[in-house]
Amino acid sequence: MRALLLVAAAALGLTPGTARTLPQPPHLLTQTGLYSAPGVVDARHLAYAPQYPLWTDGAAKSRWLHLPAGKDIDGGDEDGWVFPVGTRVWKEFRFQGRKVETRMIWKAGPRTWVFASYAWNEAQTEATLVPADGLPDAAEVAPGVWHRIPSRADCRNCHGQESVDMLGFNALQLSPDRDPDAIHGEPLQPGMVTLDDLVARRLLRGARPDLLSRPPRIQADQAATRSVLGYLQANCASCHRGDRPLPGLDLDFRHTSHLIRGADEPGLRTTLGRPSVYQAPGAAGDPRLSPGVPDQSTLIHRMASRRPAAQMPPLGSALVDQEAVARLRRWVADLPLAASH
Amino acid sequence: MSLTRPFLLAFLGAAVAQAGAPPKSILQRGAYLVRVGGCNDCHTPLKMGAKGPEPDMTRMLSGHPEALKMPPAPQLPEGPWGWTGAATATAFAGPWGVSFAANLTPDKETGLGSWTEAQFLQMIRTGRHLGQGRPILPPMPVPSLHAATEADQKAIFAYLKSIPAVSNRVPAVVEPVASH
């Protein structure tokens, strides 16, 4: 019986693969291909700025994507672009004007992704590969509060295990219909790419024909709702997403192209008035978001906490994003007490 | 239709069904590891028996009982006593707040029923709630579990998926009262 099953499995290509050795990232950032000369980013890389940035303790960031020559992105699935093997993306983090870390994701094979972080030296001339466990105390971001360079496991916690997402380089984040009220929104600098550029330069293949005339956009009838949902998409949807649900939570902040026009974004549907298992100290029965009552909204409580048991997002930052908390509080306070929106 | 075809289909169906279930040896290995790893010590509530506290095996590995609402944890004076535990040995209060032993049975709504093996392994690898969230809190010995081979971790998961499901929604962690 067992032999029969093994033969059948082999015929179907279901036999377990042999253990793969993951390619190792270069030891130095300057060996990764980011620069064409000391301190000069290779002009062939695509600089970009997502319309809804991730909060990282207030770091200033620069980002670049490299596509292998002659290769393009398969945009047939608007919610899950497929990048060619050889794609690399870098993100540089600066605090108080100094480069602290540069992270890299490298698609080394069809299903092989390499994650690496590089810590900058004092002279700001080179950055060295950080151990897999990350680097604590990389930069003091407030008195006694230190930014930590995340572990590679934590990189994958947000970007994915088998199926990896380039979280800042997707259709919504590069949409030319850019949210002017985005929380911590960064103005586009000359030369930064958007969907228009990707299409014009034939770097995006298989996208829907009306991608540029009807570009991706958070569906909301109020500007404040749009910007809040965009923020939650960027900061929360890497874990809380309908296509990869966390067991038992039913919490989804991910905007998808499949959303019916006029329908509520999942970020509203799964939060407004919805019960929360987690409760703030002294609270009982507070929902995730309580329209009109920010003080009884678990989501805001957790965003505003850096206690390990409560903090959301649970990794990637040591400081509360005070501006985002204030914007969410105002938005929730302005929501009608009845759960209509 | 030949008589052999339905026979073959039934034979293959049974073979596929058998192939989907973990081999008995894996389940036995998982049961062994759960037993010697002391998982029951916290995840199976204690009840008072004739000879004192004993595991309530009717609620095996189902975690802190949903119906047992814990009052605020006692505040300990300064000194070497650092944490307290419930009589069920399923709730623990310390500097981290109050943590509750999770439901490890395969109940779909309240236990591991909707977990995948990959999520379970990720939970062990990262030491994070649901594999991606907050750090898993004391007294859960994540490093010990992390030290097990992946084959043993998978055996544990396979065994936990095979035990009777118990519907029991364990409370969420409670933050510490003192601010910091």
Walk me through what this model shows.
- The complex is a heterodimer of chains A (341) and B (180).
- With 341 residues, chain A is an alpha+beta fold.
- Chain A folds into 2 domains: 21-212, no CATH class; 218-341, no CATH class.
- Chain A has 7 helices and 12 strands.
- In chain A, the strands form 4 sheets. Chain A has a 6-stranded antiparallel beta sheet with strand order 3-4-6-7-8-9, covered by helices on one side. Chain A has a two-stranded antiparallel sheet with strand order 1-2. A two-stranded parallel sheet of chain A has the order 5-12.
- Mean pLDDT of chain A is 92; it is low at 1-19.
- In chain B, strand 3 and strand 4 form a beta hairpin.
- In chain B, helix 2 (24-36) crosses helix 6 (150-162) and helix 4 (117-126) packs across helix 6 (150-162).
- The longest helix of chain B is centred in the first third of the chain and has 17 residues, at 4-20.
- Chain B is globular.
- Mean pLDDT of chain B is 89; it is low at 11-17.
- The A-B interface holds A 1, 4-5, 153-154, 157, 161-162, 239, 246-249, 277-281, 305, 307-311, 314-315 and B 15, 18-19, 96-97, 109-110, 112-115, 118-119, 122, 125-126, 128-135, 137, 169, 171-177, 180.
Could you give the order of strands across the largest sheet of chain B?
3-4-5
- Largest sheet descriptor of chain A: 6 strands, antiparallel
Count of DSSP-assigned helices of chain A: 7
Termini distance of chain B? 76 Å
Estimated helix fraction of chain A: 10-25%
- Percentage of helical residues of chain B? 25-40%
**What does the radius of gyration of chain B come to?**
20 Å
Q: Could you tell me the mean pLDDT of chain B?
A: 89
Total of domains of chain A: 2
**Strand portion of chain A, in percent?**
15-25%
- Which of globular, elongated, flat, extended, rod-shaped describes the shape of chain A? globular
Number of helices of chain B: 6
Question: Which oligomerization state do the chains in this entry correspond to?
Answer: heterodimer
Give me the Rg of chain A, rounded. 21 Å
Most extensive interface, chain pair and sizes = A-B, 26 and 34 residues
State the total count of DSSP E strands of chain A.
12
Low-confidence stretches of chain B: 11-17
Low-confidence stretches of chain A: 1-19
